C-alpha cells in the first residue's frame, strides 16, 4: 500500500511539474520574442487566412462580370527549437488562389501559387545575438501556370510543380533578436534552379535562367536574407522579408550561332521583397493586404507576344507595362483567420 501511495504521489508531482511547464510556455514564448536567452524550448506560431469574394449581376446597366467567385488561402508558419546557444528555426509560407467567372465558363484561373520553405541552424557566438548559421531554402509552386492572355492558353503551360524549383544552401553570419528580427548574410551561397525541358526549349534563351534545352542551372554567389515582424497594435501585424542574391558566375548567354540572347553579369542582383499587413477584425475575421516585388534579370519583360497558333506578333496591352522587368503581386483579402 505504501508503494502504491508513493507511486501516486510521484505521479502527482510529475503531473504538477508538467502543468507548470505547459503553463509557462506562453510566458517563455513572449519573453523570447525580442531576447536571446540560453534556454531549451520549442516556439511555434502560425496564421491561416482564407478569403472568398463573390459577385453577381443581372440587367446591370453599367455592365460587368455577370457572376464571379474568387478564393484564396495564405498560410505562414514558424517552428523554432532553442537549445541553449543553438537555434533551429523553420518557416513555411504557402499561398494559393483561384478565380471563377461566368464569362470563362467558370473554368478556374489561378491568381496565386507559392511554396517557400526555409530552415536555419545557428550557434550563438556572443551575447549580442550573433550566430554562425547554415541555411537551406526551397521555392516552387503547387500546380501548372498559364498565360491567360492567349485564347488557347490551356494548350500549353508556363510553369508547374518543381519547374521551376529553386534550392539555396548557404553558410554565414546571422543577427537575431528573438524571433522578431533576423538578418542573415552569406559570402558563399550555392543555388540550384531546376526546370523541365518542356519550358527551356520554348524560347532561344531558355526559361527561369536555365539555358536552352537544359534542366538545371548552378550558381554560386553572395546571399542576404532579412526578416522582421512588427506588432503595430494588438490587432495589426506587419511582416516583411528582403532577399538579395548576387551570382558570381553570371555571364552572357549565347545561342548555337554565337549570338548573345541574354545579357548578364554579377552586378545583376536578384531581389525579392515580401510585405504583409494583417488586421484582426474579430476573433476569426481579418483583413490582409500583401505585396511582393521581384526583380530577376533571368525573367525579362517584353510588351509583345507571339501567337503560338498563327505566329503573329501581338501587343500584350497589359495594365502594368510601365513596371518593366519588375514582377509585382498584390493581394487584398477579407475572410477567416486562425492563429496558433
- In N-to-C order, the SSE pattern is HHEEEEEEEHEEEEEEEEE
CATH topology of the largest domain: Outer membrane phospholipase (ompla), Chain C
| Uncertain runs | 1-25
Termini gap: 44 Å
Annotation, overall tally of beta strands = 16
In helices, the fraction of residues equals 10-25%
How confident is the prediction overall: mean pLDDT?
Answer: 85
State the name of the first-level CATH class of the largest domain: Mainly Beta
Note the overall shape. Answer: flat
Q: Label the structural class.
A: mainly beta
* The number of domains: 2
Helix segment tally: 3
Strand order of the largest sheet: 1-2-3-4-5-6-7-8-9-12-13-16
Strand content: over 45%
The CATH architecture name of the largest domain reads Beta Barrel
- Main sheet attributes: strand count, strand direction, barrel closure: 12 strands, antiparallel, barrel
3D architecture notes:
This protein folds into two domains: 1-32; 41-339, Outer membrane phospholipase (ompla), Chain C. The protein starts with a helix and ends with a strand. It is flat, with a radius of gyration of 25 Å. It has three helices and 16 strands. The strands form three sheets. Strands 1-2-3-4-5-6-7-8-9-12-13-16 form a twelve-stranded antiparallel β-barrel. A two-stranded antiparallel sheet has the order 10-11. Helix content is 10%, strand content 53%. With 340 residues, the protein is mainly beta.
